[in-house]
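README, section 4: Worked example with a bound small molecule

Sections 1 through 3 covered apo chains. Here we extend the same pipeline to holo records, where the ligand is supplied as SMILES alongside the sequence. The molecule in this example is zinc ion. Nothing else about the input changes; the structure line simply encodes the ligand pose together with the chain.
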Amino acid sequence: MVSTAGADREEVIRVRCPFCHNADSRVIDSREADEGATTRRRRSCPQCGRRFTTVEEAVLAVVKRSGVSEPFNRAKVVAGVRRACQGRPVDEDQLALLAQQVEDTIRASGAAEVPSHEVGLAILGPLRELDEVAYLRFASVYRAFTSLEDFEKEITELRTRYVAAGTPLLPGMQPDPPAVRRRGGSRSAGPGT
Ligand SMILES: [Zn+2]
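The generated complex, written as structure tokens:
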């Protein structure tokens, strides 16, 4: 009987030698990395004597509506958000950071498995901070907006947040000043009286 519970049993996991394909290898050193999120193990092959390193990471599973689960994938978050950011001033570094924030949020919940809609939820917050237009696009798909009223409500909430936070409205959120064309110089402000 093989138990995988408990850290003292982890050497039960057999790792094939990548050089000679011997079915097992010996752990010679083990250390945590990325603040404990991953474990690096230095291994040695008893057959050919060569050494190699493996990295273990706890799998965070995302369960889709169909019931199928797959490992959480930051690249998928980036791909989904990138689509919403088309034509917006958002760069790849910001997308990568957002995906990292999403993963941190989900991992912080402590669950080993999360439904896929929670991934969407975790995207909304940081995306709203990043770009309101991309946020609206993403939210409209994610929350299945069906009418203009849905957009209006969301935009009203965005505006309310700005007012509540005491942040000045962004240029795009202010009404344009009326375009006044002055012809001639009849009402020039110059001194001439
Ligand atoms: Zn080997």
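What to look for in the output: The chain has five helices and six strands. The pocket of zinc ion is lined by residues 17, 19-20, 22, 45, 47-48, 50 (CB under 6 Å).

Section 5 describes how to batch many such records.
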